[in-house]
Design a protein that fits this description.
heterodimer, A: alpha+beta, Ubiquitin-like (UB roll), 3-stranded antiparallel beta sheet, B: mainly alpha, 2 strands
Chain lengths: 122, 315
């Protein structure tokens, strides 16, 4: 594929060419602190919801950083952090067949049943 | 599926406004464009802390100091949301930061201008954040899911930034003759660089616009710039100040303001690294990174030690 499309520059997309030092020092990322996924309960009674991720050396630091990064405006009353490597996910490429079994079972929905309008409380 | 079919399926999704998520198949160029754009955006938030950080210790009151601290902390937060979004595309945090320090990755040129007076804190909030918001509101609908979600969070927080900036100028505009002059001077210095934030003119490019087709971007530079001028030309009336452009004039027929030509030579000069503060900004970032190295290493050593202790205890 031609890469000429990137030449048009938009706001927030500043031209790289002909400026600065072009050699990048792609250091190994082994020194990075591990990545954590952050889940926040916005108020008592609701589920924890994924809000993003961050780096931290350990769980305690991850919770403290999550407080600073994701709850500066009282967005939460409880924080969960999970190291990203422990999250297992379904494969989006299989989504078609994976969720297929639910597709033809419309009788699982209440609207499937045609009942008289006069029938109340149901 | 072969490459052509994959690309077609990908474009179909975009056309149906279905967001692209990290594990979905995407063209390599889509991944690269997003990495470049999101990381530049993240770097802009982080470097953007420097011009304002300059005034934290010199804010005129405790109230203003607390507000400025909160704003700068928000910008650190915005940088972190964006770095995380960028990482979902398969680039490590360290690599991203190294690219900033080596000069390979860029950040918004606006932060290469100096903050000379307290009024600059007002002008930055109103004009610079105002320009950023125009772009960021559009990006809440960008096609890459993690980027769009980060933008939603950022937009919720940016509104305070712009309002506190305008309030600083509003206060100055009602002050002494000296304060009024300071207010006008800040507006004069920040107006044109703010217009430059939207990038080159649409006509500058003869290339097909892939970013638009992929819905990474949804409005052109000139469209966003015009929206910004229309907004600011109205807002400035409340300050009883003027914008430094003799050609600024309401155009009844178009329903928009006409405005003068940007100094493109200055624009490209700053992009190329010759702005007033390019060197200083990058050095400040490198210094912070280098001097923080022992903290990163110590925290990691401590975490490793604790993990090992727990392992021995369990055994």
């Amino acid at each position: 594929m031609k890469s000429s499309f990137i030449i048009k520059q938009f706001y927030g997309d500043i031209p790289d060419a002909g400026s600065g030092n072009q050699t990048s020092n792609h250091a190994a990322s082994k020194n990075d602190w591990p990545l954590w996924e952050v889940f926040i309960r916005s108020k008592q009674g609701l589920d924890h919801k994924h809000v993003g991720s961050l780096h931290a050396a350990d769980a305690q630091m991850a919770i403290e950083n999550a407080r600073d990064v994701y709850t500066r405006r009282m967005e939460g009353v409880s924080i969960w952090v999970v190291e990203s490597k422990h999250i297992h996910a379904s494969n989006p490429d299989d989504a078609g067949s994976f969720y297929e079994p639910a597709k033809d079972k419309i009788y699982r929905h209440p609207t499937f049943y045609d009942l008289p309008d006069e029938l109340n409380h149901m | 599926m072969n490459l052509e079919q994959l690309e077609k399926a990908f474009q179909d999704k975009i056309d149906q406004e279905i967001k692209i998520e990290p594990k979905d198949w995407m063209p390599e160029a889509y991944r690269k464009t997003n990495i470049r754009q999101i990381s530049q955006h993240a770097h802009s938030e982080i470097v953007g802390m420097l011009p304002e950080g300059n005034w934290i210790s010199r804010a005129p009151s405790l109230k203003r100091k607390a507000i400025l601290l909160a704003k700068v902390q928000d910008e650190a937060g915005h940088g972190l949301y964006l770095y995380s979004a960028c990482e979902t595309l398969g680039i490590s945090r360290e690599e991203t930061i190294n690219d900033l320090h080596s000069g390979k990755a860029k950040y918004s040129s606006i932060f290469n201008y100096p903050t000379l007076t307290w009024a600059d804190m007002g002008a930055i909030g109103w004009l610079v954040d105002g320009a950023a918001i125009m772009n960021q509101v559009m990006l809440t609908r960008t096609s890459y899911g993690p980027y769009a979600r980060a933008m939603v969070r950022i937009c919720k927080e940016e509104s305070f930034h712009q309002r506190q900036g305008f309030e600083i100028l509003l206060t100055l505009s009602k002050g002494t003759a000296e304060q009024k002059a300071m207010c006008q001077d800040a507006i004069n210095r920040w107006w044109w660089p703010s217009l430059m934030m939207f990038g080159p003119k649409d006509t500058e490019s003869t290339n097909s616009d892939q970013s638009m087709k992929w819905k990474i971007k949804r409005k052109s530079n000139d469209e966003l710039r015009q929206n910004f001028v229309d907004m600011i030309a109205q807002q400035i009336k409340f300050l009883d100040m003027t914008l430094p452009d003799p050609n600024l004039k309401w155009n009844e027929e178009k329903g928009h303001y006409d405005f003068g030509e940007i100094n493109w030579e200055e624009f490209w000069n700053v992009v190329k690294g010759n702005g007033p503060c390019n060197k200083q900004r990058l050095e400040a970032r490198k210094k912070a990174w280098d001097e923080g190295a022992w903290v990163r290493e110590a925290a990691k050593a401590h975490a490793d030690k604790k993990a090992n202790l727990e392992k021995t205890k369990a055994a």
